[in-house]
Design goal:
By secondary structure, the protein is mainly α. It is about 70% helix and about 10% strand. The chain has three domains: about 1-35, no CATH class; about 40-245, Alpha-lytic protease prodomain-like; about 255-325, Cation efflux protein, cytoplasmic domain (Alpha-Beta Plaits, 2-Layer Sandwich), CATH 3.30.70.
C-alpha cells in the first residue's frame, strides 16, 4: 500500500488523511472504460466479408442440393447466388480501397469506385438472369422428374439459406441507413431479393412434394425459376439505376435540394444574391458548392461568420455532406 497525501490534499480534490492505491485506482478505471466501437466503414467491411463467407458456403451446399434434387429452381438460385457472391467480393475489395481515404491524386477520394462496384453487381446479375431463363426454357421443353431424397436435402439447405439471407438483409439495411453507401444500398436490396427468391424455391419444392403424384407437378419447378428471374430483373434495375446516376454526377435528389433552399431562405437577409448551387455524390459523401453575393459594406469577418453558420447547419442536416460557400459577384455556369 502506498500512502499519497501531500499532492492530493494541496490540490483540494480530497481533504484530510487518505490512503490510496494508485495501481488499483488506475486498473479499475481501465476496466470500466468501454471497448472501442468499430467505425462505420469497418462495420461495412465486416458485414460484406461475412456475406462473402456465407455466399461461398451457400454455393457449395446449393450446388449439392441442386444436383441431388435435379431441380431447376434450386439451380437458378445457385446461379443467382454465384453472381451475388462474386459481386459481394468485388464490393468488399472496393470498400477497402475507399476506406483508405483521399490522396493527392484523388481529391474527392475513391467514392466513385463504390458506385462502379454497384454496377458490377448489376452486370453479374444480368448474366445470372439469362442463365436462369435458359435452364427454365430447357426444363419446359424436357419434362424431368426431381429426386425425392434430393428434394428433402434441398429443403433443409434452402431453409438455412433463408435464415442467413434475412439476417444479412436486416443488418445491411440498417448500415445503409446510417450512411449513404451505393454498395450497402445494392447489397441489402440483393439480400432482400435473395430472401424472396429463396422463399419461392422452398415453396416450389414443397408443392412438388405434395403434388408429386400429379403429372402437372413437373411444371412447378420451372415456374418457380421464372418467378426467381422476375425478382432478379427488378433487383438489376434498382441497383444499376442508382449507381449509374451517381457515376454521371447527377445533382442531389429533390428532397435534399429543398433542405439547401430552406437553409438559404432562413439566412435570406444576410446575403444579396444567390448565383448558383452545385452538388454531387461520391460514394457515401455529398459535395455541395454554393455561390453567394454579399454587400460591399460588410467586413470579411462578418461574411465568414455567415458562411460558417450556413455551412454548419447544412452539414448537420445532410448526412455525409461537405459544404463549400464561395463569395462571388457574377452567376456561375
Amino acid at each position: 500500500m502506498i500512502i499519497v497525501k501531500p499532492i492530493i490534499v494541496k490540490s483540494g480534490i480530497i481533504k484530510g488523511n487518505c490512503n490510496i492505491n494508485p495501481h488499483r485506482h488506475i486498473t479499475g478505471k481501465m476496466k470500466r472504460e468501454k471497448p472501442i466501437k468499430p467505425s462505420l466503414s469497418q462495420q461495412k467491411e465486416r458485414s460484406i466479408l461475412l456475406g462473402v463467407i456465407l455466399g461461398l458456403f451457400g454455393l457449395v451446399t446449393g450446388l449439392f442440393a441442386a444436383l441431388s434434387a435435379n431441380s431447376t429452381a434450386i439451380l437458378s438460385e445457385v446461379l443467382k447466388n454465384a453472381g451475388l457472391t462474386i459481386a459481394v467480393l468485388l464490393s468488399w475489395l472496393s470498400l477497402r480501397k475507399v476506406r483508405v481515404g483521399k490522396t493527392e491524386g484523388y481529391n474527392y477520394g475513391y467514392g466513385k469506385l463504390e458506385n462502379f462496384s454497384g454496377l458490377i453487381v448489376a452486370v453479374v446479375m444480368i448474366v445470372s438472369f439469362f442463365l436462369i431463363l435458359y435452364h427454365t426454357v430447357e426444363r419446359f421443353q424436357t419434362r424431368i422428374e426431381m429426386h425425392p431424397v434430393g428434394v428433402d436435402i434441398g429443403l433443409v439447405f434452402s431453409v438455412i439459406a433463408l435464415i442467413c439471407s434475412i439476417a444479412m438483409w436486416n443488418h445491411d439495411y440498417h448500415l445503409a441507413k446510417k450512411e449513404h453507401s451505393p454498395v450497402m444500398e445494392s447489397l441489402w436490396r440483393l439480400y432482400r431479393s435473395k430472401t424472396i427468391t429463396t422463399g419461392v424455391v422452398i415453396l416450389s419444392l414443397l408443392l412438388s412434394v405434395v403434388f408429386r403424384n400429379h403429372g402437372w407437378s413437373l411444371y412447378i419447378d420451372p415456374v418457380g425459376s421464372i418467378i426467381v428471374s422476375m425478382f432478379l430483373a427488378y433487383s438489376i434495375y434498382s441497383v444499376s439505376s442508382q449507381s449509374m446516376y451517381d457515376l454521371l454526377d447527377r445533382a442531389l435528389e429533390e428532397s435534399l435540394q429543398l433542405v439547401i433552399l430552406r437553409e438559404l431562405a432562413s439566412h435570406f437577409n444576410e446575403y444579396e444574391a444567390l448565383h448558383g448551387i452545385r452538388s454531387r455524390r461520391t460514394g457515401g459523401n455529398v459535395y455541395i458548392e454554393i455561390f453567394l453575393e454579399f454587400e460591399d459594406e460588410r467586413k470579411m469577418s462578418e461574411v465568414q461568420q455567415i458562411i460558417d453558420s450556413i455551412k454548419t447547419d447544412l452539414e448537420q442536416k445532410i448526412q455525409g455532406s461537405h459544404v463549400v460557400i464561395a463569395p462571388t459577384r457574377s452567376a456561375v455556369t
